[in-house]
Amino acid sequence: MAEVALxxxxxxxxxxxxxxxISLEIPDTKFVALVGxxxxxxxxxxxxxxxxxDLSAGEISIGGRIINDVAPKNRDIAMVFQSYALYPHxxxxxxxxxxxxxxxxxxxxxxxxVEDAARILDIAExxxxxxxxxxxxxxQRVAMGRAIVRNPKVFLFDEPLSNLDAKLRVQMxxxxxxxxxQVQTTTIYVTHDQIEAMTLADYIVVMNRGHIEQMGTPHxxxxxxxxxxxxxxxxxxxxxxxxxxLEQNASALSLRLSDGVSLPVPASRLQRYQPLxxxxxxxxxxxxxxxxxxxxxxxxFSEFMAVPDVVEPMGTEAMVFFKLGDAAVSxxxxxxxxxxxxxxxxxxxANMAHMHxxxxxxxxxx
Length: 366
What we know:
This protein is an alpha+beta fold. The protein has helices at residues 42-50, 92-102, 107-121, 136-148, 166-183, 194-200, 218-223, 228-233, 270-273, and strands spanning 4-13, 16-26, 31-35, 57-62, 65-66, 77-80, 154-158, 186-191, 203-208, 211-216, 240-249, 252-256, 262-264, 280-285, 290-291, 301-306, 310-313, 317-324, 327-334, 346-351, 356-358. A hairpin with a 2-residue loop joins strand 1 (4-13) and strand 2 (16-26). Helix 2 packs across helix 3, helix 2 runs parallel beside helix 4 (136-148) and helix 3 (107-121) crosses helix 4 (136-148). The longest helix is centred in the middle third of the chain and has 18 residues, at 166-183. It is elongated, with a radius of gyration of 25 Å. The protein starts with a strand and ends in an 8-residue tail after the last strand.
C-alpha cells in the first residue's frame, strides 16, 4: 500500500508561512492534482513529500511509515520535474537506466525494466538516441521513463508540461493519464493549469495562500465549489460573479440584479436560500449556463436582454461579454446559424439550476 498522508504540515521560511497546517489523505493508486495560483504552496508541499524541503511542523507518511527524517533516496518515490534534467551525453536507454545501475541492479533486470518502460511510453525506437536529437514531448517521455523504471511507491510530478506548446500539452495529458491507468501507482501532480487538473486527476486539491480550499473529484470542485476562490479558479472562462439582492416575493425568491434584471430562484433552492432573504449576496453562474434561448430551455431558464461589448467567435459557439451594472459577465452562445454582433441587443437565458450564492464577507458558497 502506498497511501500518502499529510498531518498538520507547516513550512516556514523565516517569519513567512508558505504552507499553513495542511492535512491531506491520498489513497493508494489514485492520481491527485495539487492546483492553485503561483505562491499557493503546492510545489513546496510536493518538495516536502519528496524530502527536498524539511518540514517546520507536522508529519508525512507513505504507506503508514512516517518519513519526516527519511532521506529522499530512501522514500521509494520518483519525481518528474518541470525541466527534463536529462544527461545530454547519454543515450535515452542510459538516461533511463542510470539510477538503477547506481543501485547495483543486475544488468538483465535493468534491461528488462528499460524495455518495459519504453514500450509503455512508445519510445522503444528512441533508446539509442541522445536527448539533443529528441523533441520536447519525446524528452518528457524519457523523463517519465526514468521515473517508471524505478517502480516506486509514489510518482511526483512538478508541472511537467509547462515547457511544451499548447498542442503537445494536450497530447501529453492523454499520455500521462493512459500511463497511470497502466502502472496504477499513487501519483501526486502539481500544476497551475486547472484544465490539466480536471482532465488528469481522480481527486483535485485546490490550494490558496498556503492552505487547502477544497479537495474533491473534478466534478465536485467544478459543480459544487465550497468557496468563491474555488468557483473562480476552476473553469475557463471563470465563473461570473454578480452582486445582487435576494428578494422575497410571497412564497418565492428572486435575485435583483443591476439594470432592472430579476431572476427567479428555482423552487428546489427555496428552502436552502430562505434564510438569506433581504440580504446582499454574490450570484455565481458559469458562462456555459448563459446561452441563447433554446427550445428545451424551460423551467429553470430565465430570459433577459444584454448588449455585448465584445464577441469572440470560436467556431460552433461564440463567447459574448457584456455588463450587468458594474459586473463583467460572459456567456456561451451557439453561433452555427449566426454570430452575435457587438453593440446590438441580444436575448439570453440563464440556467438557474446551476446557480450559486456566495457570502460577500466570508467568500463561502451558501
